[in-house]
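User: quick one, fold this
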Amino acid sequence: MTAGGFAALEAELKDRQQVQRQRIITAIAEARALGDLSENAEYHAAKEAQSLNEGRIMELESLIGRADIIDVSKLGGDTIKFGATVKLIDEDTEEEKSYQIVGEPESDVRSGKVSIGSPIARALIGKKIGDSVQVNTPGGGKAYEIVDVVFR
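Assistant:
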C-alpha cells in the first residue's frame, strides 16, 4: 500500500478508537437511562453502532499490522507498475482520465485511485506511454491510450 493510504487507515483507526468509541459509549449510557432495555430502540441502535465500530477497528488493526508500505516517490521508469499515476484518453470519447494504481484497502475510484486487482489496473500493468489497452468492464469493453505515467 502507499504511504498515503497507510496514513489514511491510521487516521481512521485513531478516530474510531478515540472519538467514535466515546460517542457510542455516551449514546449507550443515555439510552440506558431511558429505562426498559428490551423495548428501547435507542439502546439497540447504539449497541449495533458499537458492534460495527469495534468490528471496523479490528479490521483496521489487522490491515495496518499486515501492511507493506511502498514509497511511490522512489519508484520510476516508463513502465506502469504499482503506485503509478496514469493519464489515459478514452479512444471513443476523447475524454481524459487519470488513475493511480494502489492497494485494495485504499482504492477509491471517485478520487482516481484504482485497486491493483481491478480490471483497468490489470490491463495497464507492464504497458508504456503510447500503448493502447483494452479493458473489459461490467459496462462493456473500453479502449484507452496511455499518454503519461508518473510516480509521485
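User: anything notable?
Assistant: The chain has a mean pLDDT of 91.
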